[in-house]
Amino acid sequence: MKPSVGIVGLGLIGGSLAKAMKHFHLTSRLVAYDGSRESLLQARAEGVVDDFPQDPSQLADLFRGLDYIFLCCPVQVNLEYFRLLQGCTDRNTLITDVGSTKEDIMAAVRSMRAQSAFIGGHPMTGSEKTGYKASNPHLFENAFYLLTPAGLSDDQQLQGLLELLSSMGAIPMVVDPQTHDFFTAAISHVPHILASGLVNTVRCLDDSSGHMHTLAAGGFKDITRIASASPVMWQQISLTNRSSILQVLDRLLQELQGIRRSLADLDAVGIYDFFNQAKRYRDSFQDKGGRPLVQTYSVTVDVVDEPGIIAKIASTLSTHGINIKNIGINNNREDDPGVLEIVFYDKKSQQDSASLLSGLEYPVYVL
Ligand SMILES: NC(=O)C1=CN([C@@H]2O[C@H](COP(=O)(O)OP(=O)(O)OC[C@H]3O[C@@H](n4cnc5c(N)ncnc54)[C@H](O)[C@@H]3O)[C@@H](O)[C@H]2O)C=CC1
Ligand SMILES: O=C(O)C(=O)Cc1ccc(O)cc1
Q: In what residue span(s) does the ACT domain sit (predicted)?
């Protein structure tokens, strides 16, 4: 029997979960609630959600007895909905959230001695875009999805959630909340603060004609893309992961002080080392290889970015019986040798496509 699912917060992440669950036919019934009625109406019109409460007072009734409830609002709002919904659910309902910080919500849920089971969750995928309109059913494919059960659910419930997430293409991984928050402070939260800090720096230094704004090129835009994300979401992430963020921020400031000192002292070796150490570590990520637990088979094709090019390559491969798992334009030529990345299901398809495409006019890189 497929599970019944409720989603509170039908934005980028909640909307993507709903679309993925519908796309992969994973639910018997999917209901949702969001502060935006427009999103709910659109989702129902698209067949993504089956029902939604007409007003917030009906939320508890509509969500009673569901197998899973996903809380997908900003982190502090998720806790408010947990408080509300745990009162109308029992141990048979597993409540989970998608918030970017975990210690805070896990501690609050534990201290509440709630009736319902809870597993913290955090998909390590997303974007700077917000709202249902930006959601996409394939968002979780090949993405790590961190889970913090911390003893607030039983084994069967954890197993069920692992299976549900895997069916959407995600790669679930169990971690403890403290480790989660420290890791994400370093790889996500402090980088976000830095990106916003850079944008604010240019905003303050720009002249009255906005020349810096006009001239800002690829590098600046790449490193600051995430500064366009929701300020409410990042305010709540920052407030709920203060100690880890402060710890990592202090380490970053030390790094910046170091390069500042090297510059002030005209220490050419120190300056070189700063860039060289970063380059060597950054090169070891190789984006696709940054997921060491998952074997991916991809090629990068150096093509001219022109209309119809993806269709041409896709049809060449399909004519030769090669199935494509994923295909996408890589807009950042600084990071990769080509612009078109094609992911396959197996090594044979990867090798066959590499020889096929290099036999045409395309330079192909097997990564
Ligand atoms: N944006 C991202 O890339 C990622 C976000 N997350 C986490 O996912 C959660 C949701 O983020 P997004 O989907 O990106 O944000 P979003 O802004 O796209 O969606 C949030 C949704 O919650 C609704 N909402 C906000 N307050 C509400 C309230 N009081 N009552 C009812 N609905 C309310 C909004 O109308 C919106 O539809 C956050 O906790 C965030 O930390 C996790 C991984 C990635
Ligand atoms: O846009 C990006 O690259 C992101 O990194 C999005 C993101 C934001 C918050 C998270 O907790 C996880 C992922």
A: 298-367
Whether ligand 1 lies within 6 angstroms of the CB of 16 is answered as no
Judged on CB neighbours under 10 Å (0-12, 13-18, 19+), 222 is: middle
Tell me if 3 CB under 6 Å of ligand 1: no
Q: Which residue has the tokens 């090798």?
A: 351
pLDDT one-digit tens code per residue, 119-160: 999 999 999 999 999 999 999 999 999 999 989 999 999 999
- Pocket lining: 124 vs ligand 1, CB cutoff 6 Å: no
Q: Quote the ligand 2 centre to 335 CA distance (angstroms).
A: 19
Would the CB of 12 count as within 6 Å of ligand 1? yes
Q: Which ligand is nearest to the CA of 189?
A: 2
Specify the pTM: 0.83
Interface predicted TM-score of the whole assembly (ipTM), two decimals: 0.99
- For 85, what's the count of Cα atoms within 13 Å in the CB-facing half-sphere? 33
Structural domains for the chain: 4-175 (3.40.50.720), 180-283 (1.10.3660.10), 289-366 (3.30.70.260)
